[in-house]
Each structure stands twice: as structure tokens, then as C-alpha cells.
Amino acid sequence: MGLKKALSAWIERFGPSYQGLKGRCLMSLRPWRDIERRRSRQIMVGSVPVGGDAPISVQTMTNTPTEDAKATLKQIEAVAEAGADIVRVSCPDEPSTKALHEICAQSPIPVVADIHFHFKRGIEAAKAGAACLRINPGNIGKAERVREVIQAAKDHGCSMRIGVNGGSLEKHLLEKYGEPCPEAMVESALGHAQILQDNDFHDFKISVKASDVFLTVAAYQQLAEAIDCPLHLGITEAGGARIGSVKTAIGMGSLLWAGIGDTIRVSLSADPVEEVKVGFDILKSLNLRHRGVNVISCPSCARQGFDVIKTVEILEEKLAHITTPMSLSVIGCVVNGPGEARETDIGFTGGGAESGMVYLAGVPDHKLHNDDMIAHLVTLVEQKAAEIDAARAEKAGEATKAPPLDKSGKKGFEAA
Ligand code: SF4
Asked: To bridge 279 with a disulfide, which of 58, 77, 242, 382 should be the other Cys (CB 3.0-4.6 Å)?
């Protein structure tokens, strides 16, 4: 088929269904951006809902010695500042669970206690105020011990996470399947889940992580079909900051794109703050959740009217304190600048004589000299963020006065 014919056939097939901005009567303005999330039941990790229609939460893990409560709390504050909703803390021994009392009492976000085998650590962590226990009931041993841990979780309002790892599968499953594979991981997860359900415990989520992207994705796909509990996503031992972020974005990104996943942890051999930032960047890229300034910038080339790379680097640093979701385009020249600016809250396009054009809400607004660009853009972004926050607060005030009611009379859910 010639190109002309192919184009006519394409227009005939897709043209009428895509109405872009004109199609305001459609359910979705841009259906090619829609992600239909898998319906999972909701559990609570402390004050954070996980699953159902709750926003996808971002978590990370501390790497300080847990017994050093001061150092651990300092790191928790840093990750919370970066946007983490939940933090996990290892509890390998008794001094760790002792320190957990102070950590849980002072942490600004819910704490998940990471317990591997020892049932006593699980009970101690629940008593210390952990919001969730990461524990595999099948690894605890005797049924009586399992019951004790579950009872402690029930008594102290803890949820649980079953964490299956491709690198530490049960011996009988490795013998049955010959190697770590999706079926073995799902069978392991469902086995642990069965133990919890047999003990009338249902507030759990599951992860089936592996360092191999293919294995992880296939395991989560199968698990998502098999059970309705919330899923905690991650590519484990993904590597250093760069390769780990890429692997995670591919694996976790494809699952999230398919609607699978209720809470995420990016595992990097890097600062936990970095994990949180990468987690948000993945969610931002899929339009699943927004936090802070989404900077759209070009790679730069000989046409650039200013040093795009340096400018973006400085701007990202100077705008790191903004948590309000908004967008800023910083484009080197008029080839792509006006088009990108049309889609962002604030835009700057270079290309004039040592100057460029500032766009507000997509419309050219004023000229700006390159020397004043950074300070001026930072001020504009701060003003816009304050404006968005004020509008949000006003809307929330109105909502408090007249709460929206659904058909059952309950207050409607507002997603982040
Ligand atoms: S927008 Fe302009 S400066 Fe940036 S990469 Fe494209 S052509 Fe080059």
C-alpha cells in the first residue's frame, strides 16, 4: 500500500474517534493516556491507604543501623521530606526492635518493620508501634508461632507484607520448578497468603520481586490475576542509581502502565532519597501521581539560545523545595519551544539575542534576558505554586462546608 493510501486508511479508521480538545463530551479527553488500575482491596499501613482507589504510595528503606534511633530518624525525615509516604526499617535483632519504639513514635510517616525469620522480632515490632510487618509467615516455623505473630499484628493494628524474592525461594519450590520462575514465585506468595487467611488475617499486601525484569513482570502479572490483595512493586537488587533506575522504570513502568501496583519501592544501591525521587519520576511519567515541578527540557543542540543543560541542572536544584504539582518547559530554541510551552504552566524558549520568551499558561507573556532567566523563572514557579496551593485550599474549604456525597451517603474519595 502506498503512503498516501495508508494515510487515508488511517484517517478513516482513527480520525473520527479522536476529537482531541474538541471532544470534551467524551469520558476521557486523551484515551491513549488512560491507565485502568487493577481493582484491589484496600488495606491501611498506619494512616496511609494502600490499594483500592488510593493513590499509589511511594516507599523506601533506611540503611542506618536501626539500633541508632537518632541516625535512623534523621534519614526518615530526609526521605519524608523528599515525598516518601511509607518507610521500611530492618529489624534483625532485639536492639533494633527496642529502638523501634522511639523511631515509630517520632517518625513523620508510617514505619514498616522488616522481619525475616524470627517470630519474636515480629511480635516486638508490632508492640513497638510498627504500622506493618514485612514477614513471610511460611518462614516463621511452627503454627503456634505464626498465630502469635498474627495475634500481635491484630492487637496492635499492624498490616503485613508478604515479600517473595526470586533469590530466596523455598527449597521445595526450586525442586519442583527447577529454577526461580514466575509460577514458583506466585505459588510461594499464595502459600504464605493462605496461612494468613487461615488465621483470619486479611490486611496484607504482597510483593514478588526479582532482580530480573522479565521474571518480576511475569510474576506480578500472574499474581495480579490470582489474588485481589494490594501489590507492592519493586525490582529487587536493581543495581546502582543509573542502571537500577532504568531497570526499575522498565519493569515497574510496564506493570504500572498495565494498571498493576498499589505501592512502589525503587531499590537502588544509592541514597534512599534518590529512590523516592526516582519513584515519583516513574509515577509522574505515567501521569499516575504528581509531586513538584515536572521540568520538560530539550537535549540542546547548536541552535540553543542559552546553555540548556546547565540551566536545567541549576533550576532542578533551586526548585527541589516545591512540592506543588506543576510543569515548566525550558527549551533551547523556537523549533520546539512554543509547542512545549503551550502544554506547560510556565515556559521559557531561547533563541533571541541573548534573550528568550516567557510563556504563562501556554501564551507568550514577556521577553527575558538570559542573565536574569534562572532567578526570574524560580520566582515565577514559586508564585504559581502559591497560587495553585491557595486555589486548592479554597476548594478544600468549600468541600469541608459541603462534603460531596456518593450514593451510599459516604464522603467521596479525592485522589492525589
Ligand atoms: S529545541 Fe532547539 S535547541 Fe533544543 S534540541 Fe531542539 S532544535 Fe536544538
From this structure: 58
